[in-house]
Amino acid sequence: MSVAVHHRQNVPALQESLKELAHLMRNIQALRHETQREIHAAVLAKHCALKEQEKDKKISSETKHELKKCFWRSIDSCENEENALRMSLDVIKNIRLANSARSGFLSGLGRTQRGEVVRKSALMMNLKTLARQLPLWVPTDHEKPPPLCGAVPAPPGHEAEPHSMVAAFVKNDDDEEWILARVRHYDRTSGRYQVDDIDDEHPETLTLLRKHIIPLPLMRANPITNPEAFFPKGTVVNALYPQTTCFYRGLVDEIPHGPQEGYSVQFEDENYPGGFAPALVVEQLYVIECVL
């Protein structure tokens, strides 16, 4: 199938998703106004109840009943708004995936739609965009972060899906290193992955053992709501060195302050006192456990 035909087939679905998102945004705006009205009514009801208590030394059953109704209506409105926001996040995620597939973004970060190798600067921008567009995990109540959310590791037996991003351990004649790669296929019989080096100036499919593959996060975490989904300060990690596609060992100097921010990482460097260079910022997506 030609690229042009593939694009045309994806356009209607993308347009429908955009229409759905626009409808959800309008609905969220209306729900937010409703929530604000209900909360305001609940605050007024509470104020009236407190005045009644101050005057009569008690609160009547009618006032208690009205106060409870106001609070329950507020809770219902908040939940309706939350559900609409979550639906919007799902639609946004699908739009991003569809747009990436349409442009060939996920299938070849290091190549153009015509198969040409992109410039290094363009590749770095693609990698940054990919990290920033990683879906944000939003918990409900006290829900714990799922596997592959931030620093939460993959569950036992996890199989990275085709096109997903991984760190791959490769050995060359004179060196061995962890590189950024994209999964092509996993063979359960042999327990080996076929992956493509993202920085593929010289395209080559690598076949690697499962133990030499580390899946990258599938979701970003929010340090405000889920600090447990981050590597603590002082943790030794493998992180993608800025402006490269290789992972190197480093020390977490500071965790992100917000969901869109990256880690502050000090990479190993024997030329500096203490063995670590000044900290550099690395996106959440590219900070993983350190495998010695």
Automatic annotation (TrEMBL):
InterPro entries: SGF29, SGF29_tudor-like_dom, Tudor_SGF29_rpt1, Tudor_SGF29_rpt2. Residues 156-292 form the SGF29 C-terminal domain. Gene3D superfamilies: 2.30.30.140. Its main location: nucleus. Pfam families: SGF29_Tudor. GO terms for cellular component: nucleus; SAGA complex. It is found in: Nucleus. Keywords: Nucleus, Transcription, Transcription regulation. PROSITE patterns: SGF29_C. PANTHER family: SAGA-ASSOCIATED FACTOR 29 (PTHR21539:SF0). This is SAGA-associated factor 29. It comes from Galendromus occidentalis (western predatory mite).
